[in-house]
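Sample intake sheet
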Amino acid sequence: MPEEPSPPGTVRPGGRTARTRAAALRAAEDALIETGFDALDLADIARRADIGKTTVYRRWGTPAALVADLLLDMAEQSLPRTETGTLDGDLRANARLVHKTLTDPRSGALFKAVVTAAAGHPATATALHRFYATRITEWAPCVEQATARGEVPEGTDPAEVIRAVSAPLYYRFLVSGDPLDAASAERAAAAAAAAARAGAYVTRVG
């Protein structure tokens, strides 16, 4: 029985196909930043990337599938975590990275566009969730190391601590419109570290 084809945008190609994918994803970034998801058009992506429309339609099929592949690529290209030797230092580094990403004119606009896309397209939402799961997994060891050093209680959930750092920053960015400045990033990191030390994120005992 033949295998079913993979969903559009999920196969990682090599050689010329990899260059085609990279060009299309870069074009998708530009289009999302300039016009948002609702105006994303595969024919326009083909024109921007200087590749054939048939190639774009065959590979991705829909704008939502293209954005899902873009999120996969973003997860793969994300910067590795910083290790400072202390929980406070590591969480500040995480908060500063989130702050830098969201306040950058290009990446901030891109994140707003993909969040908008995810709101109405399950496949894109799944890719967005996978992107953030990858980032949390990348940073979780800083909490595990803090637990081993005795900085936070045994049973502290690393993922919850990392979420606590970025959540108030995304709230300012996407919901409240309050200033997203360096001071707010520092406060988010300090609050998450203090709560972790107090046992707020202990989810298992023994």
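Comment: The two ends are 48 Å apart (CA to CA). Residues 1-11 have pLDDT under 50 and may be disordered.
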